[in-house]
């Protein structure tokens, strides 16, 4: 499962019909939305909404790049994941040694991308955080271990660092590029790339079905985003059921049928 912020775009039809004056008056979103999402089905297991209470030191803008906010978000999203042998994939803003060690005590395994600029690097060896001066070839990597935790520094046109307790650093994997072919890497790197690529496919397929609400009321925006996630989840469950093999509705047809049934219309068959 992956912890991330889903892609939420403004309604392109609404934006296209807005005047410049209306766009200037439209306020920015006053909340941030994180999810815990299954990377094999796309089902969103849990959402976390952080409201911006003001522009002071405790506001979302002030905490956006600080590790304590993202650590709090990760703990909240994973509070029901203990002891289920889940592997949680995280981005640089969430990945930290302290958080992963706390998750490990709860029976939650982790694999995350590190960034010296965005991540909390407390407790990590400085030698692994500095780029090597000697030129390296693509696919080379260095490893440091502490108990079950591995810090991997992998080179591919730049240094990429991963922190994990879910994969053995000696297990080999490959990253397949169209032009470069196969690039050797630790299995943790291959798994991270595979799981994140699925989330990108989910965003491409389902983000256009998020319901954008014109009013600037925060609770209304949160409500419609939550409804959108619930409908997408329902369609994913529908595709996994036997009913999908009988009548294969597209996502648009599924949404149309759902609206008609909620309105109590007699004709619930899709028009196309």
Strand-helix topology:
Layout: E1 2-4, H1 12-17, H2 20-25, E2 31-37, E3 44-51, H3 60-63, H4 67-77, E4 87-90, H5 97-105, E5 109-114, H6 126-129, E6 141-146, E7 149-155, E8 159-164, E9 172-177, E10 181-186, H7 187-206, H8 218-240, H9 243-246, H10 251-263
GO cellular component, one term: nucleus
InterPro entries: PGBD, PGBD5
GO molecular function, one term: transposase activity
String of helices and strands: EHHEEHHEHEHEEEEEHHHH
Portion in strands: 15-25%
Helix content range:
25-40%
Strand order within the widest sheet?
4-5-8-7-6
Unreliable parts: 55-60
SS content category? alpha+beta
- Could you tell me the radius of gyration in angstroms? 22 Å
How many discrete domains?
Answer: 2
Number of helices: 10
Output mean pLDDT. 82
Number of separate strands: 10
Domain PiggyBac transposable element-derived protein: 2-235
GO molecular function: transposase activity
Pfam families: DDE_Tnp_1_7
InterPro entries: PGBD, PGBD5
Structure description:
The chain folds into two domains: 2-206, no CATH class; 210-265, no CATH class. The radius of gyration is 22 Å and the shape is globular. Helix content is 37%, strand content 22%. It has 272 residues and is α+β, with helices and mostly antiparallel strands. The model is unreliable at 55-60 (pLDDT under 50). A hairpin with a 3-residue loop joins β7 (149-155) and β8 (159-164). The chain has helices at residues 12-17, 20-25, 60-63, 67-77, 97-105, 126-129, 187-206, 218-240, 243-246, 251-263; strands spanning 2-4, 31-37, 44-51, 87-90, 109-114, 141-146, 149-155, 159-164, 172-177, 181-186. It has a five-stranded mixed β-sheet, with helices on both faces. It has a three-stranded antiparallel β-sheet with strand order 1-2-3, sandwiched between helices. The longest helix is centred in the last third of the chain and has 23 residues, at 218-240.
């Amino acid at each position: 499962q992956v912890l991330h912020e889903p892609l939420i775009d403004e309604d392109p039809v609404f934006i296209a019909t807005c005047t410049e004056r209306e766009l200037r008056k439209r306020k920015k979103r006053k909340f941030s939305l994180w999810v815990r999402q299954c990377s094999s089905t796309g089902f969103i297991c849990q959402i976390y909404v952080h409201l911006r209470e003001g522009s002071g030191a405790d506001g979302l803008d002030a905490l956006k790049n600080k590790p304590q906010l993202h650590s709090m978000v990760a703990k909240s999203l994973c509070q029901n994941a203990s002891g289920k042998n889940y592997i949680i994939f995280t981005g640089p803003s969430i990945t930290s040694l302290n958080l992963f060690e706390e998750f490990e005590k709860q029976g939650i395994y982790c694999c995350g991308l590190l960034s010296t600029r965005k991540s909390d690097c407390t407790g990590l060896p400085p030698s692994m955080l500095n780029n090597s001066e000697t030129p390296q070839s693509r696919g080379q990597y260095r490893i440091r271990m502490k108990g079950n935790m591995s810090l991997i520094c992998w080179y591919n046109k730049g240094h990429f660092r991963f922190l994990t307790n879910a994969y053995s650093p000696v297990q080999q994997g490959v990253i397949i590029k169209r032009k470069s072919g196969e690039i050797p890497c630790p299995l943790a790197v291959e798994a991270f790339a595979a799981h994140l690529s699925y989330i990108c496919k989910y965003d491409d397929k389902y983000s256009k079905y998020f319901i954008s609400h014109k009013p600037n009321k925060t609770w209304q925006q949160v409500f419609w985003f939550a409804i959108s996630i619930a409908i997408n989840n329902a369609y994913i469950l529908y595709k996994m059921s036997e009913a999908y093999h009988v009548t294969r509705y597209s996502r648009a047809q599924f949404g149309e049928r759902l609206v008609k049934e909620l309105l109590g219309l007699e004709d619930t068959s899709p028009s196309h």
